[in-house]
Write a structure and sequence with these properties.
It is a single chain. This protein has 335 residues and is α+β, with helices and mostly antiparallel strands. It has one domain: 2-Layer Sandwich (BirA Bifunctional Protein, domain 2). 33% of the residues lie in helices and 23% in strands. One of its GO terms (cellular component) is cytosol.
Length: 335
C-alpha cells in the first residue's frame, strides 16, 4: 500500500457537498465534451465475450474478472478493462458518418491495480470514439483533438469555480506536446514515471505522445495494448498536481490502428495469434471505420477539479483498512 498525505489537508467541501459537486461535474462535462467533439451518447456493455477479442489487454499482464452465465454456459464473459475496441465496432454497427462519434459511461474492474491515492480497482471513464478519414490519421489531427479536450477541461474549471469557488483547483492555461523519446533524451537517468513528474512540474500540463513502442534505449516508456492505438499517434493528457506533488493522468487517447500498424504492433508484441480474432479480422479487411478515440477518467477529472487528496473521495470502491484508517486521521473523506 502506498499513500501520500498532503500537509494540513483541507477537503474544503463536506461529503454531501462533494457528492453534489461530483454529480454537477459529471453531468456538465459529458454534455460539453459531446458538443465539442460532435459525439452522441450510447449505452455500452459492462462485459464482453472473451473470444471476440474486444476486451482491452492493457499491458498484457492484468487478468480480467471473468465468469459464465446460466444461459451461456459455453462462453467466457469478461468484465471490460476499457471499451477501446468495442467503440470502433459500434460506430460501424450503428452507422455513424464522417466526423460523427459516440461517448459512453464505461465502468470497469481492474483487480490487479496497485492501490494508492490515484489508482482504484474500480475505473469509471467517459469512453469516446469518432470517425475520421484515412488521410486524417496524422499528428495534426491528434493534436487538434487534444486541444479540444483540454479546452473542455479548462472550461469546466470555470464552471466549478462559479459554484464552488473555495474548492476549485486551478489549472494551467495551455497544454504542451512532448514525445516519450524527447523525455528519454532529456532525462536519460530517470525512470519513465520520474520523467513524467519532471516535465509536468515544469510545464503544468502535457500531452505525452508516442506510447507503446521501444525508444532508442530499447526500453518502452510504458506498455500499451498493440491492437487499438497506433503507437506513433497516441498519448496521455497529464497535469502537474500540486496537492500530491505528482503527475496526474486524466486521459489516454489516440488514432486507432489501421491494417498495417495492427500487424506490425502485434508482431512487436509477439501477439500475432490475435490476428485471427473477429475484431482484428474486421480491421484487416477494412470493415470498420478509421477512428480516433480515448478515455477520460470521470473520478480523475472530479479529483483534479476539486483538489482532492484521494480518488476514494470522489468514487465508492474498496480499500485496505490501514489506508482507510490513515485517511480518516488526516481528514481525507473516503466514500
Amino acid at each position: 500500500m502506498h499513500l501520500t498525505i498532503p500537509k494540513d489537508y483541507d477537503p474544503k467541501l463536506t461529503v454531501r457537498q462533494t457528492e453534489e459537486a461530483i454529480r454537477y461535474i459529471r453531468e456538465t462535462f459529458q454534455d460539453e465534451i459531446g458538443q465539442e467533439l460532435n459525439l452522441t451518447r450510447l449505452s455500452a456493455p459492462m462485459f464482453v465475450e472473451h473470444s471476440t477479442g474486444l476486451n482491452d489487454n492493457l499491458n498484457g499482464v492484468e487478468q480480467p474478472v471473468s465468469f459464465t452465465m446460466q444461459d451461456l454456459p459455453d462462453q467466457t464473459l469478461e468484465i471490460v478493462h476499457s471499451l477501446a475496441k468495442w467503440k470502433r465496432v459500434a460506430l460501424q454497427k450503428y452507422g455513424f458518418g464522417l466526423h460523427e462519434g459516440l461517448y459512453t459511461n464505461m465502468n470497469a474492474i481492474r483487480k490487479d491495480e496497485d492501490l494508492d491515492n490515484l489508482h482504484s480497482s474500480y475505473v469509471d471513464q467517459w469512453d469516446w470514439e469518432k470517425v475520421i478519414t484515412k488521410d486524417e490519421r496524422n499528428e495534426a489531427t491528434l493534436k487538434a483533438t487534444v486541444r479540444q479536450v483540454f479546452k473542455v477541461i479548462k472550461h469546466m474549471e470555470d464552471e466549478v469555480w462559479y459554484k464552488y469557488p473555495d474548492a476549485v483547483y486551478h489549472l494551467p492555461d495551455e497544454i504542451h506536446f512532448v514525445t516519450t523519446q524527447e523525455l528519454e533524451d532529456r532525462y536519460p537517468k530517470l525512470a519513465p514515471w520520474e520523467r513524467e513528474k519532471a516535465i509536468c512540474q515544469e510545464l503544468g500540463a502535457v500531452f505525452l505522445m508516442n506510447i507503446g513502442g521501444p525508444l532508442k534505449s530499447g526500453q518502452r516508456h510504458d506498455g500499451r495494448a498493440p491492437d487499438y492505438d497506433d503507437w506513433q499517434l497516441n498519448g496521455d493528457i497529464i497535469f502537474w498536481y500540486e496537492p500530491l506533488q505528482c503527475a496526474l493522468e486524466v486521459s489516454s487517447m489516440g488514432i486507432r490502428v489501421d491494417a498495417a500498424s495492427l500487424k506490425s504492433q502485434l508482431k512487436a508484441a509477439h501477439a500475432e495469434d490475435r490476428l485471427q480474432l473477429p475484431y482484428h479480422q474486421m480491421i484487416l479487411h477494412e470493415e470498420v471505420p478509421y477512428t480516433i478515440g480515448g478515455g477520460i477518467g470521470q473520478s480523475r477529472i472530479c479529483m483534479l477539479l476539486l483538489g482532492k487528496a484521494h480518488i476514494g473521495e470522489v468514487q465508492a470502491s474498496a480499500w485496505p483498512q490501514a489506508m482507510l484508517d490513515e485517511c480518516a486521521q488526516h481528514r481525507i473523506q473516503i466514500l
